[in-house]
Amino acid sequence: MRKSTELIHTGGRVTAGITPSLTTPIYETSTFIFESAAELQAYQEGRSAGYLYSRYDNPTVVATEQKLAVVDGAECSLLFSSGQAATTHALLTLLQQGDEVVCSAAIYGGTHHLIANLLPRFGISGRFVSLEELAAPAGIIGPRTKLVWFESPINPTLRCVDVRAVVAACKAAGVTSIIDNTFACPINQPVLSMGVDISMQSATKYLNGHSDVTAGVLSGSRAMLEPIMKARRLMGSTLDPQPAYALGRGLKTLTLRVAQQNLNAMAVATALEGHAGVTRVYYPGLASHPDHAIAARQMSGFGGMVTIDVQGGQEAAFRVFDRFRVIQRATSLGGVESICSLPILTSHTGLSDEELAAAGVSRGMIRLSIGLEDAQDLIEDIEQALS
To answer: Which SS3 state, helix, strand or coil, does residue 63 take?
Structure first.
């Protein structure tokens, strides 16, 4: 072969041989090689475990999906390019024209906008129900309801929903149940073991844990996820192997990270309860939380999220937000770094006062994602910002 041909083909198919790699290799390739037409035919007929094209499947992505299935206690997990992509695929695949999705009014803002503004263009209606209505879930399911979507704990108020009660009502009516389990993560709240049909999580958050990956995951039975897997191929939102590798690496320390974040968040919430500059602390681990009993029944840890209402409303909240020194001002959550956000400017931006009230969100609210710093340093940072 001549030089230009050799440069393209030499070293392109290096294998580890009999010496396996300790870590998962990054298969940064768009396509895979077949040795013959017979081999390709075997793949297309489902008689081969090989790979064709990374929009369909990729070994690095599949390896991380296998880890996620273990974390969730699921038969199958599917990775997407974001949590919002995972949500969109689930809703558009499992619903069709004329169907209704019932959703908690207190929900992540992106999910709210998707159901309220996009799904109606496909003839799918959304009905938002209050937490009080979710407490009696049998009453929220109507003749056109095909799916119930909910969170627990809820962003950003950390209100909790009785997962088993919602599941029982859905099963009795033959309705699919999907929970956004991002805030708790399955280490604290194994929702599939409670009977939920599908667990959705933004893997950007606790699952990855290092604020350097954007991804989403759906977990459940293979039968439930099979049509969504086919839709993922059509819509092209499979996660790239590079972030899949980083996510798989982050999962290795998930249990350690979550355990420490639980401890740090409880320390922060306890220290802030009763502080003169705070009118209310939202944390499911506190006995003062309205849903503490529910959380204690279904969560083994209360998570790393703490939300506060600042004395003085929006103006005071903005001032406190600007004064943090250790805690960083950023959106998202679940990383090793502690960050803070203003819900009215992030997750719930653009909502009317009536919609904010329905979601339980105030204009003086600050949401804290507690990381792995020393808890006392975090407490002192918040106290100086409030002073």
So the answer is: helix
Radius of gyration of the chain (CA): 23
Question: 61-91: buried (b, 16+ CB within 10 Å) or exposed (e) per residue?
Answer: bbbbbebbbebbebebbbbbbbbbbbbbbbb
Q: Give, to the nearest 10 degrees, the angle between helix 222-235 and helix 83-94.
A: 110
Asked if 377 is an active-site residue, the reply is no
Buried b or exposed e, range 154-165, using 16+ CB within 10 angstroms: bbbbbbbbbbeb
Element (H, E) at 86: helix 83-94
- Give the containing element (helix H, strand E) for 329: strand 328-329
Q: Which of 57, 72, 162, 180 is catalytic?
A: 180
Task: Identify whether 205 is a catalytic site residue.
Answer: yes
Contact 24, 63 (CB under 8 A): yes
pLDDT digits (tens, 9 = 90+) for 291-332: 999 999 999 999 999 999 999 999 999 999 999 999 999 989
Predicted pLDDT at 109: 82
**Structure token pair of residue 14:** 């290096």
Please list, residue by residue across 231-253, b when 16 or more beta carbons sit within 10 angstroms of its beta carbon and e when fewer do.
Answer: bbeeeebbbbbebbbbbbbbbee
Judging by beta carbons within 10 Å of its beta carbon (0-12, 13-18, 19+), is residue 130 exposed, middle or buried? Answer: middle
Tracing tokens 């703490």 back to the chain, one arrives at 306
- Nearest CA to 150 out of 179, 172, 190, 116 is that of 179
Can you give the pTM of this predicted structure?
0.93
Active site residue 55: yes
What is the rounded end-to-end Cα distance, in angstroms, of the chain?
Answer: 74
Contact 94, 176 (CB under 8 A): yes
Residue 51 is among the residues annotated as catalytic for this protein: no
Determine how β-strand 365-369 pairs with β-strand 339-341.
antiparallel
Catalytic residue among 27, 51, 108, 283: 108
